[in-house]
Structures
1.
Amino acid sequence: MRSIRDIYKIGTGPSSSHTMGPARAAVLFRDEHPEADKFQAILYGSLSKTGRGHGTDRALRDAFAPIEAEVIFSEEDPRGLKHPNTLDLIAWREGKELGRIRIESIGGGDIVIEGREEDNQGEETYMENSFAEILQFCQYRYVDLVEYIEMNEGPDIWDYLIGVWHVMTRSVEEGLSRTGELPGGLHIQRKAKYMFEHIVETKHPELVECQKVCSYAYAVSEQNADNGTIVTAPTCGACGVLPAVLYYFKDKRNLSDLDIAHALGVAGLFGELAKRNASVSGAECGCQAEVGVACSMAAAAACQAFGYNIHQIEYAAEVSLEHHLGLTCDPICGLVQVPCIERNAVAAMRAINSANIAYFLTGTRNISYDMVLKSMYYTGLDMNQRYRETAEGGLARIYTRRGK
C-alpha cells in the first residue's frame, strides 16, 4: 500500500479528479513537449459531461499556459473506456502532431498514463494491503495503529501531517469568514459564516454540536466550490468531512497538533485502503466512494482522538461506509455545490455517530472494513452510469438553473 501522504493532497478546488488530475497531466505533457505551439485536450465520459461545471477546461488551459490549448468535450460513448474519467492530450507544432497520451484521472488527484506501467506504479510504503493484514501485524507485534504508521512512514510523517492540518485549519477559518454567492450560476449563497455566528447555546447541547460541526464542514466545502485551497480527504468534493470533525474535537478534547496528526494518520490508512482496494472516484463508484470514504476516515480519526482501541476504530470506519452504500453522485449542473456541500455536513455528523456506536457495540459486529470496501466497489460498478458524476440522473436530472 502507498504512503498515506498520497491521500492528502493540497490544492485548489473544486474537483480532484476533474481539475487537479487533468491539470497534473497537462503539466507533465507540456514539459515533455516544450517545442509545441499548441495543445489539444479531448475529454471523455464524466470529464466531458461535467467538465464545464467542474472547471476542467479552465484547469487545463491554465496548466498549458501560455501555450494555446483547445479543449474538446467529446460525446463518444464512454462504455468502451477503462475509466469514466479519461482524456487524450495531443501536442502540435506548425500543424503537425508531435505526440499524444491517454490519461485516466482515477480520483484524489491521481492519474494513470496508458502504456506507462512503470510511471503508474507508486512507491509502496506498506507491505499490508488490507485491514485484516494490518490488524494481524499490529496484534502480533503488540503495536497500535499510530506506532504501525511510524514504523512504515518514519517519524517525519507527523510533521507532514501537522502541515496538512494547518492547511485544513485555514480552510475552515477562511470559510467561516466569507460571505457571498458561489460561482457557477446556481446562485448558491455561502452559509457557513451565518450558521456559525447564529449558534445559540441551549439546553440541547447536541444541537450546538451539530451546528458547529456542520458550519465547519460547510466552510471547507464552500472554499472548495469557490476554487479555494483545500486538502483532499480523500477528494476535493468530500474535503469538508474530516477537517470538520477534527476542528470540533480539537478544542472540545483539548487535542494538540500531534494528537491531530495521529488522527489524520489513522484516517489516512482507511483512505488508502479504499483507494487501493475499491475507489475514491465519484465517476467510477458514485458519491459513496467520495463522501462515504471521507465519513469512514473521519470516524476513524475521531476514535483515535478518543483513545479507542483498534477494533473500535475499524468498526466505526466500517459503519460509516456501510451506511453510505449506494449513494449516487448527481451534482446539479456538474457543480460541486448541490448536493455536495450539504452532504459533507451530514457525513461529518454521521462520522461522530459511528464513533459513538463503535464504543458500545464493537464486540457484536459481523462486517469488517475490508468486506464493506468490496461491497462499495461492486455496488458502484453495478450503479447506472447516470448516477456516477454525469449530471444526468438524480437531483441533476430534476433540478435546472430555473429550479424546475
2.
Amino acid sequence: MEILSILTLFFIFLLTLLFLSSLWRQQKRSHVLPPGPTPVPLLGTPNYLTRDGIVRYYPEFHKKYGKMFTVWQMADPVVVLCGYETVKDALINHAEQFSDRPEYPVIDSYTKGFTFVSANDHWPQFRRYILTTLRNIGVGKQTLEEKSQKEAEQLVQAMSEMGGKPFNPSHLLGCAVSNIIGAVLFGQQLDYRDKKLLDLITNIRKHVSNVLSMKHQICNMFPFLLKLPYLGQIIMKNSLYLVDYVREQLDFHKETLDIAAPPRDFIDHFLLKIKEESRKEGTKFHELSLTMYSSGLLIAGVDTTTSTLKFCVTVIAHLPHIQAKVQREIDDVTGSQRPPGMSDRAQMPYTNAVIHELQRHLDLAPAALFHALREDTEFHGYTFPKGTRILPYLSSVLFDPSQWETPDEFNPGHFLDEKGQFRAKPAFMVFSAGKRECLGVSLARMEIFLFFSALLQKFSLCPTTGAQMDMKSLRFNKDEIIKSWEIRAIPRSSHAA
C-alpha cells in the first residue's frame, strides 16, 4: 500500500508539473501570437481543430479576432489565416515560407515521408516530377479527354438503367472517377460491378474518414500509442489496403514493362525513372516512393472529385430553373448526340459558371491541411518562428464579402463578366493555392465538367420529394447530401439536334 501511495503521489506531482509547464509555455508564447480562444493547459483547444469544430466555431472567431487567430494543438500554437487577402498573401506572395508541413506520425509511420502531407526536403523534386509525368501521360490533353468521354458514356448508360427511380448516385460517380485515375496510374478501367473496384472505393472512403477522425488526431499527438499491440494495424487498416493495392499493380508492371515501348501509365514512367536514377547515390526514386506517391494520387484522385460531383448533381436537382438554363446552353452547343468536350467549355460559360458556383457552396475543405513555416517569418505585424503551424481557413475565402457580390447566395454571375463570358476568380480556392495546391487540379476540373455536362445533356435530375430546398439548407446538409441523398435521373426527350 505504501508503494502504491508513493506512486500515486509521484503521478500527481508529474501531472502538476506538466500542467504548470504547459501553462507557462502557452502564456509565454501567447504574447507574440495573434489572439484566440483560451487554451486548456496540456490539452490546448482540441475541439477547435476537428472538421466539425472548424465549421461550427471559425466563423465566430473570424468575426471576433479578424484576419488571424490562434488555436492550440496541445502546447503547440496553430495560426489560422482568414479572408482572401491574408490567405493569398501567405500561400502565394510568401509561398516558399509557408510551403512546409508539420509531421503526421500516423501517416509517416507507413509512408516514411513519401506523401503529399509530410514534411521533407525532397517534396519539391517529386512535385515537379509528378506534374511533368501527369502531363506526359495526357492530363490536359486530348487522349485522356477521349477516355473521360467514353467513361461519361458508361456513366450515362449506368444511370439510364435506374429507370428514373430514386437512387444514390455516389457509387456510380465513384466508379467513373476511379476509372479515370486508374487509367492514369495503372492503365486500367474496370466494370462498375467489379468487386475489386467496389472494394477500392470503399477503402478510399474509409481511409479519408479515418484521417479526419479524432482517433487519428490523438495518435498524431501521442505517437507512442502506435506502438501498442494491434492499434496501429486497426487505425491504418484501410490505408494499408490501398498500399497493397498499388503494390499489386507495381508487381504486374514490373513483370510486363517493355523498356523499348512508350510508357503505358504513371507506374511505367516511374519505373523507368527508377532505372535511370539507380546509379545515383542517395536517390529518392525507388519502389517505396513510387508506391506511396501512387497511393496518394489514387486517394486524392477519387474521394474529392466523387464528393464534388455528388454534391453538384444533387443540388442542381433542387435548382430546376438553373438546370434548365444549363441544358439549353448544352443543347445549343453540342446538340443531343455529340457528347460535350473540353473544347466546348469556352462556348458554355454559364455551365462552367454554375459548376464553379456549386463548388464554392460545397466548400468541401473548410480549411486546408496544416502548413508549416520553413523559416522565421514576419507576417502582418507578427514574427512567427520556423515550424509554426499554419491553417488556411478556406471557407473565409470562398465567402469573403470583399470578393463575392452576394457571398451567401447561389449566383453563377460571380463567374460571368458583363458580356456573359466566364471569368476566373482568384478567390476560388477550392483546391487551395500556391506550392501546396492540389496536384490533380486540371484532371479534377476536366472530370467534373465532362461528367456533369454529359449527365445534364441526357437527363433531367430531380429530387426524390416535391419539396424544394433553399441554398442555405442544402449547404447546411452537404455531408448528408454527399453520403446518402438520392435523386432521380429522368431521360430527356429528343431535344436540339
3.
Amino acid sequence: MQNMFIGKGNLAGSPELKHLPGRNGDFTVASMRVMFGRYGQNEEGQVEQVGGFWREVEIYGPKAEACAKLLRKGARVLVIGEEREYTGRDDDGREVQVLKVVAEDVTLQLSRVESITFAAPRARQAESEPAEA
C-alpha cells in the first residue's frame, strides 16, 4: 500500500450498502463517514483529544455486508486501509479534492463496554430453582 491508513474513530451514521454492477457480476460496497480524533498531551502530561478529522471510508465484498449488519451510528471502529485522493465537484459545481479510505479491514472496538446491557445471571437462575417452603 502506498498511503497506508490506520486509525480509530466513531461512525457518524450507519453504513450505506450498495450493490454495483461489475465485469464479473455485482459487487457490494459499504460507505461510511468516520470521525478520527487527534490526541496530544496537556500541561499536566495527560493525554487528551486536541482535534480530529473526518474521512469517507469504503469497504468491498463480504466485509461490506458484515459492516452493514453489525455497525451503527456512534460505533467505535479500527480502520486499516489505503488513503486515496479523488477530484470531484461539490453542489455548487466547484472542483474539490476528497480524501477517502479504501478499507482492507474494519474492526468493531469494544472500548465502551459499559454501554452494553447484560441480563443478570441470578435472575435466570432464580427462575429455574424450586421455591423453598
4.
Amino acid sequence: MFHGLIPADRYYAYLSFRDIESMPNKENVIIIQTVGAVEQHGPHLPLMTDAAIGLYIVGKTLEQLDHDKSPTIYVLPPQYSGYSVEHTSFCGTISLSASTLTNVLMDIGDSVYRAGFRKLLFFNSHGGQPQVTEIVARDLRKRHSDLMLFSIFAWDLPNIAATLVTPHEFKYGIHAGEIETSLMLVILKEYVKMNLAEKEYPPTLVPDGGLLRIDAGLTYAWMTKDLSQSGVIGDPTEATSDKGEQILASLIASFKKLLLEIDAFNSHV
C-alpha cells in the first residue's frame, strides 16, 4: 500500500537487502528517483500536483511495460518536497533550499552506487528545479565515473498539450492552468475544486515580441507573487479530463520510449 501509483513489484523499498545483494546484472538495472514539489497550485488544486503528475507518468508507464521483455526498473520512494522558493509567499508551500535538495539527491545517488547499481534516473516534474537535478547528475557523474545519470524533466517529454490549448495558454499557462488542471482531473479528480478555479494571466512585465520571457529561455528571476495574486498563471476553467487523458497518454508513450533507450544506453563505449 505504500507504493501508491508505482507497481508493487517495481518499488525499491519493498526489496530486502538480500534481494539487492543477490540481484543479477545490477549494472543494467534502472533506478528511478522521482522529484516533485509540495507547493501552492492556486485555490483549486492540491499542493502535491507536481509530485502527483510525475508519479502518475512513471507508474502508468511501468504498468504498460512487458515484464518479460522490458528493462529491470525499480522506483525509489518519492522525493515529494523540492525547491519551491518562488511559491513561498503562498501559504502551505513546503520548500527545500537548493543546497538541501542537492545534498539529499547526492546522498541518494551515492547510496544507489554503493548498492551496485549503475543507471540512475532523476525524474523531475516541477518546473522550478530542472537545474538542480542537472547539476546533481553532473556532480555524481564526476564522483562515480562508471555511473550513468539521466536528469529528465517531465515536460521535456514530447507530448500533445500544445495542440489542445490556445497558443496564449500554452505560452502563459505555466502554473495551475488548463494543462495541469486537466491532468489532475484524471489523476486526483476528487481533490480538484473546479468551482474555485479562476483565470489569471501575468501582467505585461516584458513586451510581446521581445527577447525576455517568463517561462524559459531568456528569462529573469521572478517570484510567483510578481505574476499572480491567486497563485494561478493560466486559465484552468477550460480544463477537462478528456484533455488530461490525451496529454497523459502522450507523455506516457514518450517516457516508455525513453526508458527503452536508457536500457540500451551505455556511455562506456
